[in-house]
Amino acid sequence: MSPYKYSTLAVHAGQSPDPQTGAVNVPVYLSSTFELTGIGTDRGWDYSRAGNPTRDALETALAALEGGTSGHAFTTGMAAIAALVAMLKAGDHVVCSRDVYAGTVRLFDQIVSGYGIQIEYVDTSDLKAVEKAMRPNTKLVHIESPSNPLMVLTDIAGVAKIAHAGGAEVSVDNTFLSPALQSPLALGADIVMHSTTKYLNGHSDGLGGALIGSKPEHKDRFLLVQKAAGGVMSPFECFLVLRGIKTLPLRIKQHEENGRAVAEYLSTHPKVSKLAYPGLKSHPQYELACRQQKGFGSMMSFELKSRDEAARFLSTIKIFINAESLGGVESLASHSATTTHGSVSEEVRQSMGINEGRIRLSIGIEDKEDLIADLEQALAAV
Asked: What residues act catalytically?
């Protein structure tokens, strides 16, 4: 456990001055291969798929921020989830949050299940349902908390207790909150996953994913996947995430301040229904959010009456950008049924509770009064 507080770790973890030049930023080592010092000996690196100094710095920072034993950087968030399940075997059983990101559903249902791995989707906010889903062959319980886009929370400590009693591990997609606002490993989870594309990078200019393990065997497991399957983050992308992490605490403060203001505004708007934001006392899991999170974040979603209303809203916004993704400095709005969950059937979307009027917002760091004015004029057009 580091003696430093989070803001200090964000600036300094893995980012010591370069010993050769004194550069305060980690150099971008754009080299695919490294000179060996002899037969079977090197200076710590031999080929960038197996390891790169810039990636090493990022992975050290990621492990420090999440309180893990090792960090592992991948090309995208989906590559990280693929690495998460790469060591499972035919006959293994996975319990997964029911309203998880649709890209995860696509990977699990259309690829992973083809290897003979059994996937079961469960309302993980219901601990009794998680307990009922556990089998002798359950190896992993994968959860999103908050979920995408309905902001449903899962009691991480409660799920960890159930999973560990059954001999399974727990992985948590912590993308929506970032390590600034939630520490799944401290709550009992075994592995944390991130799309570093989002808050960790923070500037919408790079793709990436990460896994942070809590045990020495996780390091061995994920290093093997990196070396054998590839999919590792490039040195320049690692540099972008390292740069983003330095300002993460400051950005998150502004994201959350704006998020609370926008949520309070939307909560009283007559055209908005089913607003999902755990920072509102009206949210059914507000107390859980207060207990396991260090803040409420800046992600939320709400419903308009129809797809046509959603289309009018998205065509009228001016500061908000109609675009996928989240966690950047700019505010985004997206139609969940055709973006994040466009890859699953209407039947699956309905079972998740995502209808054609659902809008997801990622609140950026602009002036909150400007953001509210933009939403007001867009909703007036609905």
From this structure: 49, 101, 173, 198
